Amino acid sequence: MGLGAGVAVSGPIAMAGGPWYGYVFGGLWSLMGGTVAWRSFGMGTKLAADGITSSNLDGRTSIEWCDVETIEPSRRRNLIFFHTIAPVVRLRYRGKATLTELSLLSIKKDSVPERTGRHVAELNAALRAHRINCPRCGAQPKAVATSQGLVGRLRSRLRSLFSGNGDRSIVR
Q1: To 5 degrees, how large is the angle CA 10–CA 13–CA 14?
Q2: Which has the least CB within 10 A, 125, 148, 154, 162?
Q3: Cα gap 42→54, rounded to integer Å
Q4: Sign of the CA dihedral running 104, 48, 50, 36
Q5: Strand partners, 90
Q6: What is the pLDDT of residues 76-107, one digit of tens each?
Q7: What is the pLDDT of residue 113?
């Protein structure tokens, strides 16, 4: 947000008493800086009962919990020496979604920063909590027993015994 505000403030400085192109470029700098500052003000990841809402500089993405296959840290090469490490949500049907607003720069190639590990653990805990209660993607409800209980099971076993299907034992 500070970088965007700094660029936005430098626009009027470029316009002050300059030629026509100073006004054009100063206006563009003010517009770009103001846009970055405004968008970064709303950046973040929100967890809700229905899924994850990811807001970054590119826009806002909503991901339903039932579409999530797994959440893991992922690293990508960035700049020259740095690696960007961010949580990645692997989706069942549409590939993956990187939560870039939670990304960190790291010089270490083979380790996950502690803060990114905490973010991934928190997201996985929310995913597990959703799957416990969700009949669509998580725990499936057990089938309800048929109407007659013990009498019905006994009657069914006796029918199978006398129907001649080859299984003559009553005890399993």
Answers
A1: 90
A2: 162
A3: 10
A4: negative
A5: 70, 96
A6: 766 666 677 888 898 888 788 888 777 776 66
A7: 75
| Separation between Cα atoms, residue 57 and residue 118, nearest integer Å | 23
Q: HSE (CB half, 13 Å, CA atoms) of 48?
A: 11
140: which 2 tokens? 């499936």
Q: Where are the alpha helices (DSSP H) in 88-148?
A: 114-133
d(CA 5, CA 3): 5
> Which long-range contacts (C-beta less than 8 Å, at least 24 apart) are formed by 20-28?
none
Task: Give Rg (Cα) of the chain.
Answer: 29
Which residue has tokens 């949580």? 87
80 close to 89: Cβ distance less than 8 angstroms = no
